[in-house]
Amino acid sequence: MLSISSALGDLYRRLTERFPRSPGFQFFDVPFPLNDAFDPLAWVASQSVWPQFYWQQRSGDEETAALGALCRFSSLPLAQQFLYPLPEDVRIWGLNAFDPSQGSLFLPRLEWRREGGRAMLRLYLYSDTSLHDDAERAVEFLQALSPFTPLAILKQQPCLVQRHYPERDAWKSLIAQALGTLESAALDKVVLARATDYCYANAVDAASLMAASRRVNYHCFHFMMVFDAHNAFLGSPPERLWRRRGNALRTEALAGTVAGHDDDLQAQRLGAWLMNDDKNQRENMLVVEDICQRLQQQTAALDVLPPQIVRLRNVQHLRRCIWSDLQTPDDALCLQLLQPTAAVAGLPRRAAWDFIQRHEPFAREWYAGSAGYLSRQQSEFCVALRSAKVSGSTVRLYAGAGIVPGSDAEQEWQEIDNKAAGLRSLLELTHA
């Protein structure tokens, strides 16, 4: 891969300059010609440096691979505070947990970034004591990088053990409990999820799973956070939590689901049913109303666009986009207002959150949180759904369903099966 070798060589030469023995921040950009078959996911996965973060925007126009942490942040507000005095296009990457007060975000040492048809490789230097010393560490970092190696095809292996949390009977009991709470008017909606652990004889390669998902799950964001040699969290979700360009804010309500179909005509029939189904329209409008209520005190006029059908590989969703302008470009405020949305938690938010904490038999951790980046100039985070936690030879898949009056436990179980199928089918989860 001549492009990456040439770009790394340019960065190495920049580090031969003299740097002050005092605190400082600096970065170097080198252009990256897109004239060979360079895959940033494969490149970042070739390295034995962590954390690693891969991101592709759902339109495919933006893509990033970030490597190594100069600074780590346990929450988005801390990351935003760090960015305040820095150049406006410095980006911090990572995850916000389902509990938005917790995060795993970082300023990378090295960042490959593509926007449209242009790409660059950026190296960051930062030290609160000596920029000269950090430049020496950056030289050692570049010297320790491994050559680019193509990704291996995902090895499909039989599943030795499968465990649902909750199992099917417990799920039915959970739904009955939720419906009882809904009838008492303590809740309008609650989103309940299932985690499933699939255990294999051999370790599962997270980057190969990400690549396999990227090949087949169109119109989705793709993200992967690799914490160390054995642990990663990745996903291919369709839903944007928010996108900010300056003060301009775009978010959306993605709620209401029907099965997909390979046949275009049949898929259109199913989509038409979804567009006219009262239960699903009610579920979507609950999310719209909640988002608008949260934003109205902090933004200008809100523009709710007409409903659309979003057709994915295994399912179809109802989506309404919501556009507005923030009074101030504040990503910490966006996170506070928008996460968790009614599409992943329920309504009222606090009551739904409490119900989930009390009754779901697993910790959501990063699931139903968000993944993406923030900078002073702009930010974008997707909702961390259609996701998997890879821990050595165990893969945990997640999927959830919105429970409202009239929900049926068996139908909701089938819905979460359909949602999880996007990643499950790639692993060939067959009992040995």
What does this structure look like?
The chain has helices at 2-14, 40-45, 76-83, 131-143, 168-183, 206-216, 264-276, 278-295, 331-338, 349-359, 409-427, and strands at 24-31, 52-56, 62-73, 92-96, 103-115, 118-127, 161-165, 189-199, 222-226, 231-235, 240-245, 248-259, 303-304, 308-311, 315-325, 346-347, 370-374, 378-383, 387-391, 394-403. With 432 residues, it is α+β, with helices and mostly antiparallel strands. The chain has two domains: 2-143, no CATH class; 161-427, Anthranilate synthase, CATH 3.60.120.10. The chain has a 20-stranded antiparallel sheet that branches. The longest helix is centred in the last third of the chain and has 19 residues, at 409-427. The model has no long low-confidence stretch (mean pLDDT 94).
